[in-house]
Amino acid sequence: MIKEAIILAGGLGTRLREAVPDLPKCMAPVLAKPFIGYLIDYLLQQGIEKFIFSLGYKSNIIKQYLQTQYADYAITYSIEEEPIGTGGAVRLACKKASEKTVLVLNGDTFFKVDLQKLASFHDLCGAHCTLSLKPMRNFSRYGLVELNIDYSIKSFKENQYYEEGLINGGVYALHAEKFLQEELPDKFSFEKNYLEKFAGSRRFYGIIQDDYFIDIGIPEDFERAQTELIINISTNA
User: Fold this and answer.
1) Phi, psi torsion values for 57, nearest 5 degrees
2) Which of 86, 198, 201, 221 has minimal CB crowding within 10 Å?
3) pTM of the predicted model, to two decimals?
């Protein structure tokens, strides 16, 4: 079972700035509660015991909230002094990890992933990284992920309109030690310069989880979260 999570919450959130001008994306209020609070609560229910928060933009706001609301939990901070991309942020946070396998996810996305299934599949495959994949219809905001028959990652397709397919839901089981052994630049994209670059040459797998997914990175979906998030977050829903 995965016990440790890296939550990426250092982005500038420029697309959401018009709706939430003074806060980091993950702190955007959904029914008066910061979005990241729903995410943490779900992860705690799923068995996560330790958190590493990768912070950058307005990190003090996030730290103050966590120290007030989650003071009794094991929380570590990984602070970006300057933007280093999602890959750089994951690598910096992995250096603080104490578990072999860590969960990696975005602080502005809620994907109702069954972590026990993810962890079991990841271990069974001996994977370097296992992606949680969400089936979607009629979408253009996300790229497409193609799988081989053994559920290893075949390819990543660019963002364009697709009638149906699997998207990368941004929730990963990552072998932290193997990731840290990769020769990568100081600043890089986890998606482009790690997943896409090494697809086919590393043990990357995908597990399909067809459950609730929302990314509040744009105002339209942030507004949608106000009416549907709390209905969908129950572990029994």
Assistant:
1) -60, 125
2) 201
3) 0.94
